[in-house]
Amino acid sequence: MNLPRPSALILVASATLSAQSSVPALDPAGLTQILKSGTWAVIEFGGPTCVPCKKMQPILAELQQQFGARAQVRNFYVTEHPKEAKDHRVMVMPTQVIFDPSGKEVDRHMGFWPKAEFLAALAKVGLK
User: Fold this and answer.
1) Nearest C-alpha neighbor of 56 from the set 35, 42, 67
2) How many domains, the chain?
3) N or C: at which end does the chain have fewer Cβ atoms within 10 angstroms?
4) 67-81 pLDDT, tens digit each
């Protein structure tokens, strides 16, 4: 039986952690700035300790990499900024909101969003 070498396991774990941490979290000023930037924005309203939010991080990182400069994919921690979360009608963590380049909300999903369904929703609103 061939077992992976410990260094290979560390590499896999490191890659997973870096993908999870590559989607920055915004503060309220950063959220406002992105919504006025003239680009698509995909914002996950969640929290750093929320289990479904943690499970979304690799998907969000992949979306950020896939869309590059066409869309900004970011986290917004409702536990740190409850007023702004309320302003955006967030009632469940995580809630993913898609904003068009004018800053208008065009779609919303609550809970874990599988990547294939997420991509289909993005294509439906015009982000391909």
Assistant:
1) 42
2) 1
3) N
4) 999 999 999 999 999
Residue with more model confidence, 15 or 84: 84
Give percent of the chain with pLDDT exceeding 70. 84
Residue 37 belongs to a domain:
yes
**DSSP three-state, residue 49:** coil
Residue numbers of the domain that contains 28: 24-124
Overall pTM surpassing 0.85 (yes/no): no
Q: What is the CATH number of the domain that holds 52?
A: 3.40.30.10
- CA 104 remoteness from chain centre: 17
Residue 10 located in a structural domain: no
Check if the beta carbon of residue 20 is closer than 8 Å to that of residue 50. no
What gap in Å lies between CA 40 and CA 34, rounded to an integer?
Answer: 9
